[in-house]
Amino acid sequence: MSLSKFMLSLFICSALAACGGGGDSTPPKQPDIGGGGQFATAGIFDVNYGQFRGTYAFLDNGEFYGLHFVGDSELAGHPRGVLTSANSATNREAIAWANFIDDAQQVGKQEAAGRFGRTFGAADLQVSIAGSMGTFTARTSTRKTWGDGSTKTVYADPIALASLAGAYNGQVRTAGIGMPKDAVGAFAIDAGGTITASALACTFTGKMVQHGTTGVFDLQLAAAGPACKLNPALKGVVMPMSFVSGAAQLAVMVNSADKLHSAVFIISKS
């Protein structure tokens, strides 16, 4: 069953909860990565829509990058965009949205009607996303931490680049090139942030640079190879998912400027 049919059946059963939501219409406050009485308006957050789960990174320049998961850990989608100060859970704005498992072949396609909104309240975050599969809302009052029981957040308590350096493996999903999920067995980060990787008949090289004082890294990634179908110039972020016992799990999310190609690596340190 495709994700759209799966979600549609659940969506019909929970239409009131999924569609009837909406946060307050107060525009988001200026970026604040935490502290004081104001809930952060930039950071990394886990949300649960019921039908699927999301992990979202909101940067202080309005950029947002997200992941959607179904089941235990199946990567289902990658919404992203630049949100304005007028954006809210009840004033959704157009976004790009790679859907990795909605098509019959599960080779990934770009959602044509994606819209997203977020409202930061005094003590929580409300999000709302809409597309061809329906409209879904969720709320969270906690920021994503390094791991269970940790008080450090992956956004406001940066993991040192030296601690992230090493060899990784995992998987990659793409949209726009007609290829299914692929294994990633050769992904390396050196102490200076240089990335080298191979997957999808492509070789990747790039440099990750810390985004300000946060735990997110900006990334320019080049894809090459005679059989490589991805746009050669990709841009995005490296987002920590966890850091437990000195081992990191990272999400590497990159996209082409024309919004047609997406690649998301979910990798763990070997």
The gist of it:
With 270 residues, this protein is mainly beta.
How would you describe the overall organization of this protein?
The chain is mainly beta and 270 residues long. It has helices spanning 3-13, 15-19, 161-164, and strands spanning 43-48, 53-58, 63-70, 74-82, 93-94, 96-99, 109-110, 115-120, 125-131, 134-140, 166-175, 182-189, 194-199, 202-210, 217-224, 233-244, 247-255, 262-269. The chain has an eight-stranded antiparallel beta barrel. A six-stranded antiparallel beta sheet has the order 1-2-3-4-6-7, with no helix packed on it. The radius of gyration is 18 Å and the shape is globular. The two termini are 33 Å apart.
Layout of secondary structure:
Layout (H helix, E strand, L loop, with lengths): L2 H11 L1 H5 L23 E6 L4 E6 L4 E8 L3 E9 L10 E2 L1 E4 L9 E2 L4 E6 L4 E7 L2 E7 L20 H4 L1 E10 L6 E8 L4 E6 L2 E9 L6 E8 L8 E12 L2 E9 L6 E8 L1
Antiparallel strand pairs: 1-2, 2-3, 3-4, 4-6, 5-8, 6-7, 8-9, 9-10, 11-12, 11-18, 12-13, 13-14, 14-15, 15-16, 16-17, 17-18
Widest β-sheet, arrangement of strands: 11-12-13-14-15-16-17-18
Uncertain runs: 1-38
Structural class: mainly beta
What is the count of DSSP helices, taking H or I runs of 4+ residues? 3
Order of helices and strands: HHEEEEEEEEEEHEEEEEEEE
Q: Strand content of the residues, in percent? A: over 45%
- Alpha-carbon distance between the termini? 33 Å
Number of distinct beta strands: 18
Biggest sheet character:
8 strands, antiparallel, barrel
Mean pLDDT across all residues, rounded? 88
The helix fraction, in percent, is under 10%
**Alpha-carbon Rg, integer:** 18 Å
Shape: globular
